[in-house]
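Meet today's protein:

…
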Amino acid sequence: MIRIRYRRICSASTLIGTFVCLLSSNFTKADQSPFPTNATLRHMREIEDPRLSPDGRQVLYRILDSTADGGQAHLYLLDIEQNQSTQLTTTLSTDARGDHDAVWAHDGQSILFLAKRGSYTHLHTIFLRGGEAQPTPIQIPVVHDHSRLIDVGPMTLDTMPEEEQPVPADVLAFRGSAQAGRLIFIARNPQTSREKALIDAKADAIAVDQERHRTGLYILDNAEHSTIARPLDLSTACADCDVADFDWSPDESQIVVVLKNSGRADDVTPQISTWIFSADGKNAPQRLTAVPPTGGQVVWSADGARVIYTGQSGINAPPGYAALYATDLSNGKNHVWVETEHTPTGRPFPLQDGSVVVQVEHGLDRTLVKYTFDQATPGEWALPVTNVDAFDATDRGIVFVGSASGTLPALYYAQSFGQPVQRLTSQPVSSEPISATQAQRISWRHEGRQLQGLLYLPTRTPAHPIPLILEVHGGPLGAYVDQFDPFVEFLLGQGWAVLRTNPRGSTGRGPAFAAANQNDLGGGDYRDIMSGVDWVIAHAPIDKSRLAMIGYSYGGEMAGFIAGRTDRFKAIVSGAPVIDQFSEYGTEDGSWYDRWYFGKPWEHMADAWRQSPLSTVGRARTPFLLLQGEADVTDPIGQSQEMYRALRQMGVKVELITYPREDHGPLARGLYGRSSPEPWHGYDARRRLTQFIREAFERH
């Protein structure tokens, strides 16, 4: 079996020489390049979505422009033999996403992609022989749902106009076909002229969770002769559902469709169903009853005999902890691959030999493995990098975006799984030299568990003890992996060491480890994190009198726990936190995730309060900085406002900075130096963060 290459780990079991291990030649900086400044992070680009051509000779990929340049995406083409890239598109999109969801046409002579250039997101085609990208303005019929239209005074249904003509489709996602001009796509059912008339008259009351415009699945049979798509009738399977995922069968006679009950029904209980529809709509749909209501991304096996999907682990684990399954269409039975410490994190890619390549987290690595039906555990691959961000696997080869803490992101190619890997010359992620400091992997034992983390030092031979920044990941279901991270390089540039830990509740260590903080948020996970801090202080040149902590989302929640339980830190920075489990539960976008951890708050009052950082705020003394997006629906702004008010009334130094238009994920992207359409929010957050910590260190 091919094994993943692991870097050396320093652990408490090898105390002799640990300090030497930490400062050994494992410490590297790419070309001894400078650490990035705050301004540098506004100019970082990202490599995304590699797609191998049908003949395996070219790679289609996209570059996400830097924040300073607008954060939009452009398409590039790389010739593997010549190892050279060419820019295919220059984004003119009116959408922040730019050009996206690009795929090869079946003949390899053109590329299909989505872009919003005007009022709608259209399918575009660009031919390799030359010329500009051409839009295909697909139209769809209007769906009337009178049952959900209100009757407002004289504006009755009889007096309002009736929409009859097809309207442009706002395409959300699509799958190409082996037949030219044929595809399936998702689009949201369009607004009718009757609805527009009501809105213009300000008769625009909103019935919460009663969305009129569900997503539908459409088939375009021949774009050369007609751009009017026909809807696939989903009502026989589910009358009130949205399309969550879909895929062609290999012969394109059938479509597997994942349906999700609309109106946020999954806030009550998971309500996903998986069906097989005939592409011509003539046969009644068949439900795959073996697929649980937590099914996820779905693909068809190459021989058409199975549907392969990721879904919630059958072992008790937090919502979102996935396993890999296959449903045999001949007997309806599920095959479950052994649930090891490999955590699937993306769409599986089936190959002609019946195997499946999938991205997984495993310890401190995010890598690729291969599953087969006759093998209990996955086949592993000795990659030259420890992090795979995105990949494409076909029978012509495998291409992926990879990095490591000491290696900048780049494209990589191999002829097949397990074969030697070639680094390709893609567009660089930075226009100027930038550091890539290799992390030291550390391991320590605490309360019967072997824990892992990453330690970064700003200098190989420090002349004096170094201040330490503790970072806590989001989630709780998440993990740090050994990858290039511009935000870490930025913190190192301040002269600070950085510690990242994966406490109990993290991914990549199996479902039992992921579930180990159930009904114990801020308990064992907090102790795991602090034990990592203690281990590093004991074995590295750290100034224990100058500790600071940074966290976002669950990391921001942990910041609240830390503030109320220890005064060891001189400054704490909390981004988009959970502070009060009661108010969070009632105002967040979805509560199923939180419910798994501690149940319905009104039924478990003591548990919910114990796991709320607000419960210990009376003991907080550490200066506290809150960073919050005003449009956040995951951890709404009220959470930060509660913490701000409580700390302020307790006399603790506290600042609350809010960012207009920012939702949960986008603000995090900007803060951590990833591409963002907001030009200055990330810059401002980093400026305030470093100034807040530096002033706290100077006071002590």
Q: What stands out?
A: Residues 439-588+615-699 form a domain with the Rossmann fold fold (CATH 3.40.50.1820). Confidence is low (pLDDT under 50) at residues 1-8, 13-20.
